[in-house]
Write a structure and sequence with these properties.
The structure is a homodimer.
Chain A (H helix, E strand, L loop, with lengths): L2 E6 L7 H14 L6 E8 L4 E7 L3 H10 L6 E5 L1 E2 L1
Antiparallel strand pairs in A: 1-3, 1-4, 2-3
Chain lengths: 82, 82
């Protein structure tokens, strides 16, 4: 299954509770697109959030985030790791 | 220990061998700044590379990447996860 890192760049001040709620919103519907969100890392100061997932396509990742109310600004397909 | 996600945005076409070599370059000197690079994820198409680390500071992460020959474009301190 392809792996993706998506980036949100406009979440300044995100709290643990808000990130948890957003992540749960993704998890609640991700199965409808075959997406599996693994983890989310946030920097409330710069407003950047990074989400690692396995999914059939970048568009599937985009659709889940959009439907959950927090569209991703970037979606990168991870094909090389170290 | 604080956690960081740094981003390189100019690595279009990065190969598994090149990412491995770059990562090994970091690992070889990271102890001098107390940095522990955990993992690197690359998208050779967009040229984005994401590196997760534990480190005393963002500047310590920046210095290791700079000395290894691949300065980071962004360093985000991760204080919230989900």
């Amino acid at each position: 299954m392809p792996e993706f890192m998506d980036v949100h760049t406009n979440m300044v001040g995100v709290t643990p509770e808000a990130l948890h709620e957003a992540h749960q919103g993704d998890l609640a519907i991700q199965g409808e697109e075959g997406v599996d969100f693994k983890q989310a890392w946030a920097d409330p100061v710069t407003g950047h959030v990074f989400c690692l997932s396995e999914a059939p396509s970048a568009d599937a990742v985009r659709r889940i985030h959009e439907r959950a109310g927090h569209a991703a600004d970037e979606v990168h397909e991870i094909t090389v790791t170290a």
